[in-house]
Amino acid sequence: MQQLQLAKVLKNQIFEGFVLVRASEQRTSSNGGKFLDMTVCDLSGDFNAKMWDGTVQPPAPGTVVKIRAMMQEYNNHPQLRVDKMRPAVEKDQVEMAMLVPCAPTPAEEMLAAINARIDAMQDEDLKKVTRLRLKECGPKLMYYPAATKLHHAERAGLLHHTSTMLQLAEAVCQVYPTLDGDLLAAGVILHDLCKTDEIRADESGVAADYTREGQLLGHIVMGVSALAKACDEAGVKGEKKLMLQHMLLAHHDLPEYGSPKPPMFPEAEVLHVIDLLDARMFEMNRALDGVNPGSFTERIWSLERRLYRRAHPPVRQENAEDGADGAPQDNGEE
Predict the structure, then answer these.
(1) Which end of the chain has fewer surrounding CB within 10 Å, N or C?
(2) Where in the chain are the domains?
C-alpha cells in the first residue's frame, strides 16, 4: 500500500490516506462551536489537524484512522483541515512502517527466534525462568520500543534489540568457548524486559514518556526485582539466581548510567559489551542513513561525536557484477 507522505503534501492539496493519531481532544471555539484538535503523523513527521465537526468523537491516541483533508497553513505551520475520517479496519491492511519507525523484521519472527533459543537451552533452570519472564510481559513484546528516543526507539524495538544481541552472543561464544552460552543468552533475554514497565507506549510502538515507576526506579531496579520473584516461582536458587540478578544489575557498567556494580564475571561483561555495541550500531546506522556519501552527520549528542559516511561503500560479493573475463568490475574506488 502506497500513499503520499504528509511532509510532501503541498498547500491546498488534498490528502487521502491513513495516519496515526498521536493526540486528540474535542475543544470549543470562540463562537461556541465544537471541533476536533488532533496531532497526527506518518513516517515523515507530526502534523496538527483540525476537524470542524463537533459531532465526531476524538479518536484514541495510538489508533490509525483514514482521513480526507486539505493541507493548509496556520501561523506559518502546515495544518490539515479534515472533512472525513474513519477508523482503519483490518481489510485496509495498513502497513505500520508507513506511519512510525518499525523494526526491520516482523515481531512474530523475532519472538520465534527468541523462543527457539530458550528451547535450545541445556540448563533447565535458565530455561524455566526466562520463559516465565517472557510470558509475564505478554503481548506488549510485540510492539514495545526499547527506548523513548535513542537506540531501537521503534515499533517492536525491544524484540529487535534482544534478537540481534542473541546473534552477537552466539558469535562471541564461538570465539570464547569457556563462556556459559545459556547463562549469557538468559541475560540477553532478561536484561531489558522491564522496559515494558519503565516506558509508557501504545500499540503503535510510539513511546510517550516514562511511567512513574520508570522515573522513580528504572528498568534495572525493576528488572532485578521481577527476576527475583520469577526465580522464586521457578525454584531457581543460590548462585544461579544471584548471577542472573548481577547481570541485570551490571549491564550498564557504570553508576552514572544506572548500574551500581560493574560486571564481575565474564558473562556479565559480555552482556554489557554487546548491549553497548548493538545500541551504538543502531544509532550510527540511523544517523548515517540521513546523510549523503562522503558527508558528515551533525554532532550526535548520545555518542558525543560527528560521524562520517564513506564515499565509496564496499562491494558486496553477491552484488558485484562480473566483467567479460569473469573478474569483478572496477567500482572506481582507489
Answers:
(1) C
(2) 6-97, 101-286
pLDDT at 207: 84
Among all chains, which residue has been given the C-alpha cell 558473562? 267
pLDDT value at 157 more than 60: yes
The answer to whether residues 244 and 225 touch, using CB atoms and an 8 Å cutoff, is no
Which among 104, 204, 96 is positioned nearest to 164, based on CA atoms? Answer: 104
Q: At how many degrees (to 10) do helices 124-137 and 238-250 cross?
A: 50
CA-to-CA separations, 16 to 6, 29, 66, in angstroms, rounded: 10, 26, 7
Q: Nearest CA to 265 among 297, 299, 234, 240? A: 240
Compute the 3-state secondary structure of the chain and give helix, strand, coil in percent, each to the nearest 5: 40, 20, 40
Which residue has better confidence, 81 or 318?
Answer: 81
pTM of the model: 0.81
Residue 105, Cβ density class (10 Å: 0-12 exposed, 13-18 middle, ≥19 buried):
middle
Question: How many Å separate Cα 63 from the centre of its chain?
Answer: 18
CB atoms within 10 A of CB 30: 5
The C-alpha angle with vertex 169 and arms to 310 and 180, in degrees rounded to 5, equals: 155
Helix segments in the chain, DSSP class H: 107-119, 124-137, 157-175, 181-190, 195-198, 212-216, 218-234, 238-250, 266-288
List Cβ neighbours of 287 (8 Å cut-off, separation of 6 or more): 297, 300, 307
Single-letter residue type at 198:
E
For residue 318, what pLDDT band results from cuts at 50, 70 and 90?
A: low
pLDDT of 202 over the 50 cut? yes
pLDDT tens digits for range 14-43: 999 999 998 899 999 888 889 999 999 888
Q: Are strands 34-42 and 45-51 parallel, antiparallel or unpaired?
A: antiparallel
Phi, psi of 209 (to 5 degrees): -175, -175
How far is it, in rounded angstroms, from Cα 76 to Cα 73?
6
Fold of 6-97: OB fold (Dihydrolipoamide Acetyltransferase, E2P) (2.40.50)
Asked if the model's pLDDT at residue 176 lies above 90, the reply is: yes
Statement: residue 308 has pLDDT above 70: yes
